[in-house]
Amino acid sequence: MNLVTNRNDPACKRPYKLGKRADQSGEKREAVLRAARTQLEDGGYLSLTMDSLARQSGVTRQTVHNLFKTKTGVLEALFDQLALDGGMAQMANLMCQGMQEANSGALLSGFVRIFTGFWSEHRDLIRRIHGIAAIDPEFGTAVEARNKRRQMAATRVVDRLAQINGQPSQEQRTRQIASLYALTSFEFFDSLTESLGNSQEATQAVIELTRSALNCKP
Description:
Helix content is 79%, strand content 0%. It is mostly helical.
């Protein structure tokens, strides 16, 4: 059996070609997402179409479709990218740590800081996105999906705090989840930042308010 591979064999070139295609696909994906962010920042929802994304990113409309399927798919991918850039990846570590440790104050303040840090990092863009979501159903659906994730995370935090501090009644649990969800919303943080003048004070205020709402000591 010949164990020496012929370098001219097409099979030898395939992994390289596949890797090159993957790199090119990744570059095109990044280009489309950059175009989506720019268009949202500059022109809002009317200018954001599959055709405009293709033109600005230098790819074909079919490529945009192949990569994201729909405009909602583009938005979901953009939101994922913003979440990573804004430190939302820390949430998994916080949840794991919170399940292992009996420090309710650290869990709650960490939860708040992750969201307020994310809101602060992309405040102008998220404000525009939420404004668009109020009048465009496609944007509204994408934003609502993100809010449901935050609500689920708030539920996990409340249930973990209950394990540490004692089980509340069902009515209290429902109220605590609703309070944590509302107090960590972008709209609340944005308004509080505007009133207090900076995001640091707004973050501290949200921490204090959530501690009070959930009867959680520092």
